Amino acid sequence: MLPDGSTVWLNAGSRIKYRNDFNKNNREIQLSGEGYFKVTRNADLPFRVIAGDLSIMAIGTEFNVKSYDDEDIIETTLVEGKIAIHQDQKQKKSIYLEPHQKAIYMKYDKNLTVTDMRLVVENKHEELKLKKGIIYIAEKIDPEPTVAWKENRLIIKGEELNSLAIKLERKYDVKFVFGSESLKQFRFTGTLENETLTQVLDVIKLSAPIEYKLQESRL
User: Using the 8-state DSSP alphabet, how is residue 89 labeled?
Assistant: First the structure.
């Protein structure tokens, strides 16, 4: 709970920072990782989240921001209300999101499949060259898979094991080591709630020709 009455949920491996004069002269939050924000309305003092190169402004709304340092993209998903996304500190260029829209900002030039872009472009299968500093908009998305983490659920829809492993690493505080690069390409669909890591790995093992071994940390 923030001093202005807004509520923030933080995902694993995430943190926020704000100044001592928060809710007096500003309502600015710096985010590293993933957070879900339910913002108290104050038209005179807009709420702002700084995530990497982006500044996300809201007055009274609910939205999710994912901005991990070790990931190539910054995702902003709007659940309710309206938000403005600025790409630079001067805030000359803004993109506005409506409910059930997602903005995906590329930190680096990268080739991604349309599936990896998570509905940015539908019904196409070619590989896209996504450019650094560009925001891509996915419209009419279902926000539930994106924000389910705040209720300790993980909704998986055709996700490659490579990206799923990153989420499991954060959720269970473990490190995955793949014996073969080809294992990363297997895709999975399902919902995880209160399962243990072993239960999750057993389900993965049943769904694909994969074996696993758990080791204690050597640190």
Answer: T
